[in-house]
Amino acid sequence: MSLIAIGCDHVGFELKIRIIDHLQSQGHSIKDFGTHSTERTDYPIFGKAVANAVASRECDKGILICGTGVGISIAANKVHGIRAVVCSEPYSALLSRQHNDTNILAFGSRVVGADLAVMIVDAWLSGEFEGGRHKNRVDNIE
Ligand code: RB5
To answer: What pLDDT digit, counting tens, does each position of 2-20 carry?
Structure first.
């Protein structure tokens, strides 16, 4: 089981609660970087906090939620060593682990429903990086 950093903005807050419950029921540990309510805030704060926790290896992986998953993933990808993917279906989530060694998953609470979000999370966490030819490409990004 993993230690997973999680963060969201105000738009992602309610879905984050559902995802935390699901992850804990699967035996994962969570470090919640906020936000902690639906009061309006700014997604870069939480994208950066989760990205720093993953890049420093304080946490194994990260999950980020905003309205679309776009802004918060862009913010996370500014941190060196972070490969954040924004997904609205499980196939890309799984392949992003297997081929791209993504270390943060982002999605949008205005894009995916809660049940689909859980499926995306499960697909992403089930994927293992395949290395080989994919390692050269990921190394090239770095
Ligand atoms: C907030 O209104 C919204 O812009 C944010 O949640 C996110 O979708 C940005 O990418």
So the answer is: 999 999 999 999 999 999 9
Residue whose C-alpha is closest to residue 134's, from 96, 85, 90: 96
Expressed in angstroms and rounded, the spacing between residue 77 Cα and the centre of ligand 1 is 16
Question: 100 C-alpha to center of ligand 1: Å?
Answer: 25
pTM of the model: 0.98
User: In this structure, what CATH number is given to the domain that contains residue 14?
Assistant: 3.40.1400.10
Per-residue pLDDT reduced to its tens digit, 58-80? 999 999 999 999 999 999 999 99
| Spacing, Cα 115 to ligand 1 middle (Å) | 21
At 71 the pLDDT is 98
Distance CA 20, CA 82 (A): 21
Q: What is the pLDDT of residue 1?
A: 84
The reply to whether ligand 1 has any atom less than 6 angstroms from the CB of 11 is: yes
Query: Does residue 109 line the site of ligand 1, with CB under 6 A?
Result: no
**Count of domains for the chain:** 1
What whole-number distance in Å separates Cα of residue 61 and Cα of residue 23?
12
Active site residue 66: yes
For residue 123, what is the enclosing H or E element?
helix 114-126
- Is-catalytic flag, 59? no
